[in-house]
Amino acid sequence: MSSPPPDTPRRRPTIADVARRAGVSAAAVSFAVNDRPGVSSVTRARILAAARDLGWQPSASARALTEARTRAIGLVLARSAAQLEGDTFFLRFLAGIEEVLTAADYALLLQIVPGEASAALPAYERLAAAGRVDGFLLTDVEAGDPRFALLSGAGIPVVLAGRPVGRAPFPWLETRHDEGIAPAVAHLAELGHERIGFLCGRPEFEHQRVREVAWRSALLEAGLAPGPLGHVVFDAPAAALTVLQEEPTAVICSSDALAVELYLAARSLGVAIPGDLSVIGFDDSTLARYASPALTSVRVDYAEFGAAAATALLAAIAGEPAPDYSPSVPELVVRASTALRRRR
């Protein structure tokens, strides 16, 4: 008679098992068992009961890590390498962040996640659950942003670098970037342009939507009807061509990179800049200075913005109110891509 097979060793429960049992995120489990704020007493009790039922306990080393300050803040960017290559905003924004963090003996934990914004959600959850950062900066704030629900239950300080759509569970700050559109429209109107188009990014991003609203408002103020509008979702060259096919005499672009795409599209159609078409970019990047012809562009102090965002987050981590932030006014830098409207 053969003896019964030995019992198969049971797998040790994990934090993910507890999260599934309690119906919460792994980050919420971490905050509940470490008695950190941000989890309600009812949810905390449910999490602790699930952990007890499963026989799960955080390791001593994990508990030590989560109880201590990491002296790091997290920033997760949903960007491809190609997108980052021409993204002047983030280069300057990061420089401002690093200036403040270095002075405060903090570090920036930066993760680049290719794809859409939703692809970054697991990265936020992993960083929060592991206690690797003391707080997060959120950029690219959009309508119905899924990060709000994820991080509001994690009890970790968060600051939004950008205006939210409607109410948000976190403090936010913003540049006055939209105020750079009105001077651009006024400059073109003074040159005699009446059909002024706009080429911008995806409207679900609040900073793009706000610039589009500013463009419409400035045209209304100047007594002009809106010219052709192009939204870049996946294909910037196609959006640029669509705008040009409606024959504007001038186009404002929401970034210098989009202005360069417009240059290429205009060249393919035999449209001369600035003879047939005046173009204004946004960001005043290196692209603006080295484009041919040199690009008129709106300059925003993104380094100042990054420094203010980092300062606000460090204050939130310390449980203190954020200092006042008075962003500088954008500046229109006029170069060779704008000229008097040529009468047709």
From TrEMBL:
Taxonomy, superkingdom: Bacteria
Any GO MF annotation of the entry: DNA-binding transcription factor activity
Keyword Acyltransferase: no
CDD domains, alphabetized: HTH_LacI (cd01392)
Domain HTH lacI-type: 13-67
Stored Pfam families: LacI, Peripla_BP_3
Sections of the chain in a coiled coil: none
Keywords attached to this entry: DNA-binding, Transcription, Transcription regulation
PANTHER family assigned to the protein according to its UniProt record, in alphabetical order: ALANINE RACEMASE, LACI-RELATED TRANSCRIPTIONAL REPRESSOR
Descriptive protein name: LacI family transcriptional regulator
Organism: Solirubrobacter ginsenosidimutans
